[in-house]
Fold this sequence. Notes:
It is a single chain. By secondary structure, the protein is α/β, with parallel strands linked by helices. The protein has two domains: 12-150 and 353-494, FAD/NAD(P)-binding domain (3-Layer(bba) Sandwich), CATH 3.50.50.60; 159-215 and 299-347, FAD/NAD(P)-binding domain, CATH 3.50.50. Helices cover 29% and strands 16% of the residues. It has a five-stranded parallel beta sheet with strand order 3-2-1-7-19, covered by helices on one side. Helix 2 packs parallel to helix 12 and helix 12 (405-426) packs parallel to helix 14. It is globular. Residues 63-65, 148, 152, 154, 169, 186-192, 194, 211-212, 300-301, 323-324, 348-351, 458, 460 line the site of NADP nicotinamide-adenine-dinucleotide phosphate (NAP).
Amino acid sequence: MRKSAEELFGPAGTPKVIVIGAGLGGIAAGVKLKKAGVETFVIYERSASVGGTWWDNQYPGCEVDVGSYLYSYSFKQRFPWTRTHATQPELLRYIEEVVDDHGLRDHIQLGRAVESAAWDEERHIYRVALANGQVEECNVLISAVGFLNTPRYPDWPGLEQFEGPKFHTFRWEHEHDLAGKLVAIVGTGSTATQIVPVIAPVVDHLYVFQREPGWIIPKGDHDYTQDQLDRFRGAVARRRERIRLFTWLEMANFRRAIHRPGTKVNANLENICRGFIDSELADRPDLREAVTPSYPFPGKRPIFNQTYFGALKRDNVTLIPRAVARVTPHGIVDAAGVERQVDVLVLATGFQPTNYLASVEVTGRNGRSLHDEWNGEPEGFLGMTVPCFPNFYILYGPNTNGGEIISFLEHQSSYAVRAIRRMRREGVTAIEVRPAVFRAYNRWIQRSMKGTAWVVSNNYYKAKTGKIVTQWPYGALFYMFLTNISGRLSSTARRASGSSRPVGVAVPASAA
Ligand code: NAP
């Protein structure tokens, strides 16, 4: 006889869910779970605060490069953004407000790092181990650990012997006063280009080490005028702004045009970047040459920045268009063998995006870990699900980077929540993607990479094998369409032979 939801999942009649991470993804998942009437969930966050990337990255000048009214949840549009592009402190305030608005505090446990999760095929539960020795059980596991969460530290000879402060932008050490110091920043990606204009006026001298330049699109960021602030108090103006930003992105992504050299959209954007270099650096042919990429647009992740080129022209800033060869106790030696004395070393060397779920080992029903299954080439169905890993959903997983990220996180959360509602409704305890669908989808997504500038450029999108494992080449609407139609079609559902009631999950007492 079919068991009731209460018999299967406990008195609340809803599956127990563990969400890993309280960044924008984990919080979206929490809100969607609550809206679906699922209170039996806990969100574990390894940091001391919510916010994910916006808590981790607190470097000077940190702000988003998507318009504020688009880089926000569809369910929380009302927020008094002060700028076209929100700053990191403002984003943290926004995230805290969402947590409070939706009563998520009780569900979030801070300072709790999830280390591993293993599927129990008899009971259809995940056994989840935390760094503090705690072990919990759940029916459904949602990874919301994010994409750019594992810093990439260089392995230059001598780095450890450097005697001054040295730190990665992911963990900015605010206790070091940079005033009057000789500072080196290595890397010229989105992060470094935000930092350089802010610290250049303070330091004695700033050395910017560039290995390969990125294409820079003028960002057009500014504080909102009083008139704009007044206007955005109205829901209609906010909605209009959101639609305007969204439409621009969708059109640029239509038929992958923005990423494919030879299309009008791609050529226009490359011309805008070239024009920006020419106008900003008209009087500095040396810099013009050094910052002009030799690969087709966009190649790497494009940089949105208005003030970086201006900062490079300052007398106290030197761009060194060479890689770092080694570090000495008091300086940096570039690839040409020139050493420069440095007091503080800032590593703006980015992250390990292709190393998905680097900090969590998930084991599936065949006893193999996800990393072994992937074997260096992460893939998922819609970036979210993997055969042999039932009831496991990855937010911001493989090949989902590149679109409008907040809407992706919302669609992915909704996808997982729909499956959870199905478990409750149909009394099933394991939902798993069909291997044939998974394989066909991943063949298709790889075919979609053909003709993009990514293939012929150096970027962080490629696994060591050269396969592009991070990018979604289309728009958000197409992704939403696929996530909306495919859940049931792509998966199989089963019931456990043993009891599937998890024990010891630290959900709020009211929901247990
Ligand atoms: P990144 O884009 O990966 O840039 C890292 C930089 O470090 C690159 O210039 C890279 O050079 C250089 N580098 C790496 N290893 C090096 C080494 N061993 N020696 C010398 N140079 C080295 O990292 P990021 O700037 O931190 O940005 C990461 C991503 O975060 C961005 O792409 C964006 O998605 C996101 N982000 C967003 C915002 C925003 O929304 N406002 C702001 C910051 C970051 P090569 O190019 O030659 O590899």
